[in-house]
Specification:
Pfam families: HD (PF01966). This is HD domain-containing protein. With 290 residues, the chain is mostly helical. The chain has one domain: Hypothetical protein af1432 (Orthogonal Bundle), CATH 1.10.3210. 47% of the residues lie in helices and 8% in strands. It contains 13 helices and 6 strands. The protein has helices at residues 15-22, 24-27, 49-62, 67-75, 86-90, 98-106, 110-118, 144-156, 162-169, 184-202, 205-223, 236-244, 249-257; strands spanning 2-5, 9-12, 172-175, 178-181, 276-279, 282-285. A two-stranded antiparallel ribbon has the order 1-2. It has a two-stranded antiparallel sheet with strand order 3-4. Helix 11 (205-223) packs across helix 13 (249-257). The relative contact order is 0.14.
Length: 290
């Protein structure tokens, strides 16, 4: 299977990786936007959880991660709901971890487990993804997940180039089973980009506005039986179609945008990074590197 990633280029997949990608549960991620609701008002920001999940796997593979950790990278977002984190805002879920609470149940998918069985893999290995340190490592340090969504989001909003991404990827290394950077320059670059992503994009006016609007619309639709919580287990377009059976979603959004929002505040998860750097065979956080 040939796959062209918009930021990492062309790759060939085969065996268990290819077969997991081809499952219906994974293909569903093509219809779940990484940026949640923002594509409704800014069609340029249209990348998906499908692209991100494969990107995370590719970073893990580049760093020598085991096939199990590569698979964990593919699967880590498989339980995301329609519009990604929108349901966290609607239900006021602290930590934005609604999808993580569903992960174990989604991992029981029959087609997915048939692939595991074919390749003699125990699906329960992937339940605790935090044990895969290249994939998930606590803030403020680096992880394949954190790196890919930063590079991918920043590329999509036009803030980094493919040349910059290639340069940064060459600065990645792994030591003691975690991701480190080869020099201070890589750490400073990534920290700057990550800070921009969180303050100017995640907390930017356009992103906050559409999520506040969609939170208002979804709460109304849930409260009036137009949709149910389980409808979020499908995908963005399925949920839009369900709403459009009774209302015109885009006209509704435009009407709210044309007036005054009662509350244009949205609580988002606070994130900072302090990447670890290799300095004279030692690992130091960027904040401690002279």
């Amino acid at each position: 299977m040939k796959y062209i990633d918009k930021i990492y280029g062309e790759h060939e997949f085969s065996g268990v990786i290819e077969e997991i990608i081809q499952t219906n549960i994974f293909q569903r991620l093509k219809k779940i936007h990484q940026g949640g609701s923002i594509f409704l008002v800014n069609p340029q920001i249209n990348h998906t959880r499908f692209e991100h999940s494969i990107g995370v796997m590719l970073i893990i593979k580049k760093l020598g991660g085991s096939i199990e950790e590569q698979i964990a990278g593919l699967l880590h977002d498989i339980s995301h709901t329609a519009f990604s984190h929108l349901i966290d805002y609607v239900l006021d879920v602290e930590g934005e971890d609604y999808h993580e609470r569903r992960y174990v149940d989604v991992l029981k998918d029959n087609e997915l487990n048939a692939v595991f069985e074919k390749y003699q893999l125990n699906g329960t290995v992937f339940i605790d993804i935090e044990k895969f340190k290249l994939l998930e490592y606590p803030l403020p340090y680096l992880s394949a997940d954190r790196i890919d969504y930063t590079l991918r989001d920043m590329f999509q909003i036009g803030q980094v180039s493919l040349k910059e991404i290639s340069w940064f990827i060459n600065g990645l290394d792994s030591l003691d089973n975690r991701i480190v950077l080869k020099s201070k320059a890589y750490g400073e670059w990534f920290q700057e980009k990550y800070n921009f992503l969180t303050t100017e994009y995640f907390e930017g006016e356009e992103n906050i506005e559409i999520n506040v609007i969609m939170k208002k619309i979804i709460k109304y639709c849930l409260g009036n039986g137009v949709i149910q919580e389980k409808d979020f287990f499908e995908d963005d377009f399925s949920l839009i179609d369900k709403i459009n059976q009774k209302y015109n979603l885009m006209q509704w959004i435009d009407k709210i945008r044309g007036g005054e929002l009662e509350n244009n505040k949205l609580t988002t998860k606070k994130r900072i990074v302090d990447p670890e750097i290799i300095v004279n065979d030692q690992i130091l956080p960027l904040s401690e590197v002279n």
